[in-house]
Specification:
41% of the residues lie in helices and 22% in strands. With 217 residues, the chain is an alpha/beta fold. The chain folds into two domains: 14-105, no CATH class; 114-216, Endonuclease, Chain A (3-Layer(aba) Sandwich), CATH 3.40.960. The longest helix has 15 residues, at 172-186. The protein is elongated. The model has no long low-confidence stretch (mean pLDDT 91).
């Protein structure tokens, strides 16, 4: 309804709220109590506000699924961290306190895509110090690049989506990207490129990143 991507969510079930006293299943729909939740119009449809919908994703599908959608919404100013904290407080069943706390603690408004959020969650889950959208400069302060992710101080993680160069048959974008990467490496950084296929094998992905970290130690 709002163009926010989801990952790790069972789309075979439609999550609804209604004037019911307890959660009910009705065919492919799961209807939860409306309670005090606010309802707004999105086009011709009545929907819960963005913050409540994102918290429900975290509750129903797990903190990682919630973070991936919420990062995207935060980055595009569709919701704020305060909005999400307030929504979590409204929807905090006792049994889900830890789940919602993990969700809120893992959010990163600087993450710009599903791929970046998934990569960051894998790296952070392995205990690696990772930051999003880090500006890289020369020793004189001249801008060189903005890294998708930076592990430690010298390992740049770049996420390459499948369509990144698809609309550039001239190859100019690819050439520009190579020059950018050469400039980053010249400053002593190690660059690790990640694709969707890498995210399907977190063990191998982490092995590559650990090797890169060892190379700059």
């Amino acid at each position: 309804m709002r163009g926010i991507p989801v990952f790790g969510v069972d789309l075979r079930c439609v999550d609804l709220v209604g004037r019911v006293s307890r959660t009910m299943l009705a065919g492919i729909a799961r209807v939860r109590p409306l309670g005090e939740l606010e309802v707004v119009l999105v086009g011709d449809a009545r929907c819960t506000i963005v913050a409540d919908a994102l918290v429900q994703v975290a509750l129903a599908s797990g903190p990682s699924a919630g973070v991936i959608s919420a990062d995207y919404a935060l980055n595009r100013a569709l919701v704020s961290l305060d909005d999400l904290a307030a929504a979590a407080e409204r929807r905090r069943p006792v049994r889900a306190t830890r789940r919602l706390s993990r969700f809120l603690a893992s959010l990163d408004p600087d993450c710009e895509s599903v791929g970046e959020s998934r990569t960051r969650l894998i790296l952070a889950g392995a205990g690696l110090p990772v930051r999003s959208q880090v500006v890289i400069t020369t020793p004189d302060g001249e801008f060189v690049a903005r890294a998708d992710l930076l592990v430690g101080e010298k390992v740049v993680i770049e996420f390459d989506g499948a369509l990144k160069y698809a609309h550039d048959p001239s190859g100019a974008a690819l050439f520009a990207e190579k020059r950018r990467e050469d400039a980053i490496r010249a400053l002593g950084y190690v660059v690790v490129r990640i694709t969707w296929a890498d995210l399907a094998s977190p063990v191998r992905l982490l092995a590559r990143v650990h090797a890169a970290c060892a190379a700059v130690d």
